[in-house]
Amino acid sequence: MIADRPDRRSAKLLAVDSAGKMRHVRRTELASVLSPGDLVVANDAATLPASLCGTHDASGDPIEVRLAAWVSVRDPTRFVAIAFGAGDYRSRTEDRAPPPGMSPGDRLSLGSLVAEVERLLDHPRVLVLHFLGDRGSILGGLARSGRPVQYAHVSRPLALWEVWTTIASDPVAFEPPSAGFALDWSTLAAWGQRGIRFATLTHIAGISSTGDPVLDERLPFDEPYRIPERTAASIRQAAVTGGRIVAVGTTVVRALEAAAKADGGVSSGDGLASGRIGRETRLRVVDAILTGVHQPGESHFELLRAFADDSVLERASAALVEHGYRTHEFGDSMLIERQHRGLWHTSTP
């Protein structure tokens, strides 16, 4: 656990190759574990201030809503949201009070924004909200009244700029594609000097925790993405030259595998990443993942099981603990290369 946001330049990196061999380096030395011809693909989505506090008008009770997904990216007024009662990020999410009882048509006063409960979904914390106003007024209201979704492991309030990666572009994500915190301009320059190529896509990263174990089992929710033609072309070129496709974060893995074609390329354009990637998934595009430090049971950790068998991940987890790696979005990093399935040992389900 971390009490505050650490210096990204001091971060560590555990690199695990396709044979399960491990290497500890500083994250600033990331270029040393990549090879000329590799293509690194990162998510350029910027993060919305998606946490809104206010009042449930019918009862007068306090409420926090955390926007978790767009109902449709073509409709900027409607969101799937996770609701909580009194309290804030300084309490652990799993300890938060339930939201006030709500019915369709109820209004929520959320700072400068007003939202109506359009419908309740099949869990007390999950609802669809319709914000009153047009795109400009809603985004402006989020900027004035919202703040980044935050969890108790960071003790002070985060500014919006702190949850934007170096390459952040359109503000469409609900939580940061935090694996991208490993990137900075000096890292990208070092890659260019070594012949390591770089491309981006936009994937709308959703919420990572709801505080309810049953609801967390559904994560990640379906997430839209957009793959530029130039990125698809770079992936085709890497296939020809034998370079690895290295995904920066779980969102990039989800997008590329959702867009995968039979020939190992990807389709450009818009798509929807749905379902979980896990142990039974046969990856068709991505050869390695640069990610944060995840713990068993988390949806992000489950995705790592598509890259390496459980014995390798267990050894990696032990090494992370032994060497004091930091977890969570501002922590340290791992680079895991996909194992060849024929090398996998028998692992537990």
Question: Could you explain the architecture of this structure?
Answer:
It is a single chain. This protein has 349 residues and is of the alpha/beta class. A nine-stranded mixed beta sheet has the order 2-1-17-16-14-3-12-13-15. A six-stranded antiparallel barrel has the order 5-6-7-10-9-8. It has a two-stranded parallel sheet with strand order 4-11. It has two domains: 8-46 and 158-343, QueA-like, CATH 3.40.1780; 50-145, Thrombin, subunit H (Beta Barrel), CATH 2.40.10. A hairpin with a 4-residue loop joins strand 5 and strand 6. 19% of the residues lie in helices and 28% in strands.
Determine the N-to-C terminus distance: 28 Å
Chain-averaged pLDDT: 92
The succession of helices and strands, N to C, reads EEEEEEEEEEHEHEHEHEHEEHHE
Structural class label: alpha/beta
Sequence of strands across the biggest β-sheet: 2-1-17-16-14-3-12-13-15
β content, as a range?
25-35%
CATH architecture of the largest domain: 3-Layer(aba) Sandwich
How much is the radius of gyration in Å? 20 Å
Proportion of helical residues: 10-25%
What is the number of helical segments per DSSP (H or I, 4+ residues)? 7
Largest sheet: 9 strands, mixed
The name CATH uses for the topology of the largest domain is: QueA-like
Structural domain count = 2
Count of DSSP E strands? 17
Outline: globular
